[in-house]
Specification:
CATH class of the largest domain: Alpha Beta
Structural class: alpha/beta
Helix content: 40-55%
CATH architecture of the largest domain: 3-Layer(aba) Sandwich
Strand content: 15-25%
Number of domains: 2
Strand order of the largest sheet: 3-2-1-4-5
Shape: globular
Number of strands: 10
CATH superfamily of the largest domain: Nitrogenase molybdenum iron protein domain
CATH topology of the largest domain: Rossmann fold
Number of helices: 12
Mean pLDDT: 90
């Protein structure tokens, strides 16, 4: 009998300790040091837990969330004073500063820039688990993956593959490279990246002209999209220019590695190439 009571006592203690640990790990105060992470927090319906973000986190501006960081430089003193349960960081934040926060007893989780759509999805699920929104995360990913697969199948029969040039900067001109999530926009649309063999993002205007893209997408990142579109339109020996297949994408959507912004961009590109 004593052994039974002893076992019950141990089991009760274990349950209590587990409950206390779970309660202690509950995330109620989040600081985000990355715009895409902040956007994901909103997509997870966890914005009530967000207590701080960067000056570039457009998703949080309507709610006037406190700013605790620029794009790359966090205000450590302000972050510590806000007593967060969790700080989310991207690869842009200094490792040294993140270690300083950890030494102060603050939990820090780093999400590196995803290289594929699949990695975007897996990171979103991981973030959902962290902030107690796993069910919501799974539902979002299920929906987004179905839409992405439908687009991939729709474009899989394109032969020959249309050539894409996605411009993400000017003076110098930069392009989307392979092994980046933005390259998946091209592959899901059944296309070929004119930069498929490049390892550096800077690309000369002459090379773009020589590779004759069928579609040009200008991503607005501190540049005037209309001016870049007009510049490319002059070169009528480029199929994209000849056929009026030059389009502008909003960088706040196209460059954000979240599942919803990815599918929104993919929808936009598909509509453009099908002239809907």
């Amino acid at each position: 009998m004593k052994r039974i009571y002893s076992t019950l006592a141990l089991m009760t203690a274990f349950v209590l300790l587990t409950s206390v640990a779970a309660f202690a790990e509950k995330i109620e105060r989040i600081i985000s040091l990355g715009p895409s992470l902040t956007q994901s927090i909103y997509y997870l319906n966890a914005q009530s837990q967000l207590v701080g973000c960067t000056s570039y986190c457009h998703a949080a501006k309507p709610d006037n969330k406190p700013v605790v960081s620029s794009a790359v430089k966090p205000n450590l003193e302000k972050i510590v004073s806000m007593k967060p349960d969790l700080v989310l960081a991207s690869g842009l934040t200094s490792v040294k500063e993140l270690e300083t926060l950890r030494k102060m007893g603050i939990r820090v989780e780093v999400f590196k820039s995803p290289k594929t759509f699949d990695e975007i999805c897996s990171q979103f699920i991981a973030l959902g688990k962290l902030v107690g929104k796993e069910e919501r995360a799974v539902a979002v990913i299920d929906s987004v993956k179905q839409r992405a697969e439908a687009i991939r199948v729709q474009n899989s029969s394109r032969n020959p593959k249309p050539r894409f040039f996605i411009q993400i900067g000017a003076s110098p001109i930069f392009t989307v490279l392979p092994n980046t999530f933005m390259n998946d926009y091209i592959t899901y649309c059944g296309g070929e990246n004119i930069a498929h063999d490049l390892t550096a993002g800077a690309i000369g205007k002459e090379l773009v002209i020589a590779r004759k893209p069928d579609y040009i997408f200008v991503v607005t990142m501190g540049i005037t999209g209309d001016e870049e579109k007009a510049m490319w339109s002059v070169f009528k020996n480029i199929p994209a220019s000849k056929n009026d297949n030059i389009f502008i994408l909003d960088s706040n959507i196209a460059c954000q590695p979240t599942p919803i912004t990815f599918i929104e961009t993919l929808d936009l590109i598909t509509n453009c190439i099908n002239k809907k």
